[in-house]
Prior knowledge:
The chain is α/β, with parallel strands linked by helices. 53% of the residues lie in helices and 14% in strands. β5, α8 (193-209) and β6 form a beta-alpha-beta unit.
Amino acid sequence: MASFFNRMIVGGVQLMPKSTVRLFANRYIAGDELVDAVDAARELNKIGICATIDVLGEAVTNKEEAVAAKNDCIQVLEAATRFRIDSNLSIKPTQLGLGIDEEFCLEQVLEITEKAKEINCFVRIDMEDSPYTTKTFDLLKKVKEKYDNVGVVVQAYLHRTYDDVTELNKIGVNYRLCKGIYIEPESIAYKDKKEIRDNYLKILESILGAGNYVGIATHDDYLLYEAKAMLRNMNVQNDKSEFQMLLGVREDLRDEIKSEGYKIRIYIPFGSHWYQYSVRRLKENPEVAGYIFKNILAKNRK
């Protein structure tokens, strides 16, 4: 019943005018400007929660757009220093030119990572859809040869991910482990919820067993329960993991995780490309749509 309800919301959102979609977007996007993301991060920091800031946008069509995106990322880093924000920076490879010229993209990411290193900031390379999976891992490896303040996102619903992590563990990668939100064919991605959950936990155990750092990124109650049990059973120290959630999604759960003594980080997207991001995110993850809609109703009742 819940999944049907969530799909109904997604279908409705796609038919709504842009101004109405904005009501959904406002729950989990900081705003159009960098100052909006800074304000959101500062508010989270006040209550002991870390952030990661993302400049919305992906798949640029020319190098000029990619350079502009790189400059936006550097502005985020400068703002983090200026306002003393406890925040990482999340970057999308295609936004920085991966689909145009891989060497050019590498130069862009190296410039960002070098700047981040100067101010003791961490850079998370986001994972996009399957045509870019191998290219993103290759990018990570090349950046990691020069800088250690960089990590990557891995997606549990892809068949290949466990093997990818087995290899990446050898070079001490810092991970963000999520289920995955891009729509992929059944030939390369699990579709069944149990299969995705099982693979998520299998990958998590591999990462923790190798002694690597992981951001456990999920709003799934089952996965959160099992992940906490795994951390306890494997005696994982607090400096080897954190939990990660989206801005505006399940804030009650966020606060509960924090109250239990775990480190938690919130993903804060901002920028002018909010509409495209919002519709895609809701379409590809109906559960998020349901959480957001319920949060809006709860707020309106107060």
